[in-house]
Amino acid sequence: MDLNKELKRLAAVHRESPNKVFTMYLNTDPSDPEQQGGEWKIQFKNGMRNFEQYLKEADNKEELNCFQQVKQQVEKYIRMNEQQFRRGIILITTADEEVWFAVRVQMRLKTVFFWQETPVLDQLKKLKEQYPKSGIILVQQNKVKLMEAYLNEVEAVKMYEFDLEIDDWREKTTIEPGNPTLQKDDLYARFEANKQRWYKKIAPKMDKLAADKQWEKVFIVGEPGQAQAFQDQMNKSPDEVINKNMLDHQKSNILKEIFG
């Protein structure tokens, strides 16, 4: 999803009554203490009912009809996706579905509902700023892991290892032992003697990916000497260098370390 493009499209939307724009930010985060009992279902039901009740009391039949069409669309989306919910849902639509934006996100949202002439994009813009399209480069001696992340989710992972037999990096596609003939101490000594040369061979690949994938931010993660050595070989300056060995950590922990 190109969120920049979607934001531009949604910002241009303006609808007059009765076919207004419905915007929903729904917190479905199971780790939220306030959501332990699936309270989002009650909040969703109450939010929709309040709009419906207001329009009934206003005796605005055309607008009520449009809202009820939207309500059916939204309820259908929730039924179809409930088993795959993440931490939040953002949904923007109109009765005729000429406007439709629905995404399940891995970030906690503040639950709010809007029925007005334009979409409400504040939380969506905030998420884009907090969790930009990023390249996370994790280094550990002769290993480099690349994680591409966007909106607090990992979109792709690639693993590279320096192959001493061919004196170059290769992408690992399966779990396999690397450089099995070298003891740990021998590998460390070889790495220390060659790290600048080794990293110089793979850093241009990261620079090219940064340009091709249009990373908005670049992070390098690794022990101090290794992270600095890798940074020295890149043309693109990283936005942040994190001096921790996290190559074998779970993806969620890495994202939490970087984005909080």
Task: Give the structure's gist in a few sentences.
By secondary structure, this protein is α+β, with helices and mostly antiparallel strands.
Can you walk through the features of this model?
41% of the residues lie in helices and 24% in strands. It has 260 residues and is α+β, with helices and mostly antiparallel strands. The chain has two domains: 3-129, eRF1 domain 1 (Translation, Eukaryotic Peptide Chain Release Factor Subunit 1, Chain A), CATH 3.30.960.10; 132-259, Nucleotidyltransferase, domain 5 (2-Layer Sandwich). The chain has a six-stranded mixed sheet. A hairpin with a 2-residue loop joins strand 5 and strand 6. Helix 2 (39-57) packs antiparallel against helix 3 (61-81) and helix 5 crosses helix 6. The longest helix is centred in the last third of the chain and has 29 residues, at 184-212.
Strand content range: 15-25%
H-E order: HEHHEEEHEEEEHEHEH
Number of domains: 2
| DSSP strand count | 10
Could you name the CATH class of the largest domain? Alpha Beta
Main pleated sheet: 6 strands, mixed
Q: Do you know the CATH topology of the largest domain?
A: Nucleotidyltransferase, domain 5
Distance between the termini: 22 Å
CATH superfamily of the largest domain: eRF1 domain 2
Task: Report mean pLDDT, rounded to a whole number.
Answer: 92
What value does the Rg take, in angstroms? 24 Å
* Parts with pLDDT < 50 across at least 5 consecutive residues: none
Task: Give the strand line-up of the largest sheet.
Answer: 8-7-6-5-9-10
- The number of distinct helices, counting runs of at least 4 residues, comes to 7
Percentage of residues assigned to helices: 40-55%
- The coarse silhouette is elongated
Derived from helix and strand composition plus strand pairing, the structural class reads: alpha+beta
Q: Architecture of the largest domain in CATH? A: 2-Layer Sandwich
